[in-house]
């Protein structure tokens, strides 16, 4: 008995084989393609701690010594690791497109304060970690004087983030003094008084109280005569001349 040939199955099999072959040769061709260009994108528009040229130089340091580099010679993970170890970089994604262009998308760290203490000066990022100063860019952030204890670093970072992300506080608070008992004082831009924030608790309530105080007092000539604005009492703002 002659078995009937299922031409549809035969055709489908041929198509699958053909597509697999094309994919194999395309991958092989892409792997053998030379790297024609490096394209660096800095995704953090507010920070300029590093430049595209600086990132490109870091990438080139991971390349083999040959003058022409093919895709097969690249270790994308090693390039990302190299970039992520940089003190100014928070995260990077590196990939190569079909045209042989190597792309690096880099997110810079965000500085939320500058610390000056014991003849040292450095930034704090939005996670509360140290980051060095940059020759490329100076961030306009509050200056922090004094030393924070390890047990208070997390809540202190939250306070600095609150200042950084709030339009009013960001443009108002210019300096933070950490006292020996870990209480905080703020210096503000438009007035000569000291804001006594107190200990690092009831943070949101204290900031809300201060914003309400400024809103209702900005047309009062007495605000220019205050020496201290005390936020320690969460139910009221106490001012002294």
Beta strand %: 25-35%
Per CATH, the class of the largest domain reads Alpha Beta
Following the backbone from N to C, one meets helices and strands in this order, namely HEHHEEEEEEHHEEEHEE
Give the CATH topology of the largest domain: Rossmann fold
Report the radius of gyration as a whole number of Å: 29 Å
Give the total of domains. 2
Number of strands: 12
Q: Please name the CATH architecture of the largest domain.
A: 3-Layer(aba) Sandwich
Helix proportion: 25-40%
Could you state the oligomeric state of the chains shown?
Answer: single chain
- The whole-number mean of residue pLDDT values reads 85
Low-confidence stretches: 21-32
State the secondary-structure class.
alpha/beta
Cα-to-Cα separation, first versus last residue: 112 Å
Strand order of the largest sheet: 6-5-4-7-8-9-10-11-12
Q: How can the largest sheet be summarized?
A: 9 strands, mixed
- Tell the overall outline: elongated
Total of helices: 6
Notes on the protein architecture:
The chain is α/β, with parallel strands linked by helices. It has 2 domains: 37-108, Ubiquitin-like (UB roll) (Roll), CATH 3.10.20; 111-240, Rossmann fold. It is 32% helix and 26% strand. The chain has helices at 7-31, 52-60, 76-84, 153-165, 167-172, 203-217; strands at 37-42, 89-96, 101-108, 111-117, 120-125, 130-131, 143-145, 173-178, 184-188, 194-198, 228-230, 238-240. The chain has a 9-stranded mixed β-sheet. Strand 9 and strand 10 (194-198) form a beta hairpin. The longest helix has 25 residues, at 7-31. Residues 21-32 have low confidence and may be disordered.
